[in-house]
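Can anyone check this?
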Amino acid sequence: MQASALSVSDLNEYVRRSLAGDPMLQGIAVRGEVSNFRPYASGHWYFSLKDEHSRIACVMFRQHNMGLRFKPQDGMKVVLVGSAGLYTVSGSYQFYAEAMLQDGVGELFERYNALKDKLLKEGLFDASRKRPLPLLPRAVGVITSASGAVLHDIKTVTRRRFPNMPLILRSAQVQGDGAAADLVKALQELAQSGYVDVIIIGRGGGSMEDLWAFNEEELVRAIAACPIPVISAVGHETDTTLADFAADMRAPTPSAAAELAVPDKKELAQRILTLRNVLNRQAMNHLLTLSARAQQAAGRLERFSPAMRLQGYAHRLAVANQALLGAYGAGLRERKQRVDALLGKLQALGPGETLRRGYALAMHEGQLLTGVGELPEQFSLVFHDGRAEVQVLSTKLEEFL
């Protein structure tokens, strides 16, 4: 049975993925001679790379070639760094270049990669080793050539952002024999001076040979070991040196390095003013909260103080006393009424009322005489309105019903 046929697109896509998935074809360097070089208006470059026996179609897109310091020409010997792949539209196998070096720089590039891999494995470029830059350094150290544009750019940006920020220059050789050693010595001198809190090290752009001092192992290790944060500002934005990987911060340009190292004084003052206002508001709110709590505590203290408790007890005593007096007065009035009632009854039943009805009391020497037999010759008759002295003429016993 015949297998189902693939479309041309499917086959080309399969080959493209196979090439793209092969690690042996990624990040490789190829040496050869440029042939049929064609730059397009889009900025992309199309050409061939050949040697004595073979050739391969090549493309270098604009984002990769715009940083080159030279423009290739037919017959120029170069080293390309990139990956092999397939352009599926035409089914053509080609090399996608991401970097280009003039032949003779290839040896430096190999040394660069070998040292990079070595230091990478040692952890010298680990992000955990990077230190934060100081917010407001006392002074900024600058290591570069005293006559280059780098120093001018750093000065210009610093004066604009923080006019009175001290810059301490340690002029150094930035290329050629002895440059790496001089740069290491400059780092050590500034770190030991005790004057600077951050160091900018850099130079202007150039070829790989011009920038090579910043790829030397002794300088890369010195930057990583520096006790003060280091900003690397080497070459242009597209240039990358090992010093960039070892530094605490990499700046694409010297001006950008100054931006990173020196705060904007006006912005800093505004931040301080904003923070001060926030702090004042927070302090005021805190004071208002504490005042309210103090007032609440004072109210509770006043309610539960001995004086207030005594005042409460005094009030309760006054109320109780008033109630007692009221109850006593009511009881007293009730008892008076009862006494008056009893007194009225007593008076109604007493001798006074009897005397008013026409009766009299026979009294002799303060004693009540109750019978005829007790009468002396002379005694007193007590009426309701007075007394009469009586002389007994005779007596006669009689029974009264």
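Reply from J.R.: I decoded it. The chain has eleven helices and 14 strands.
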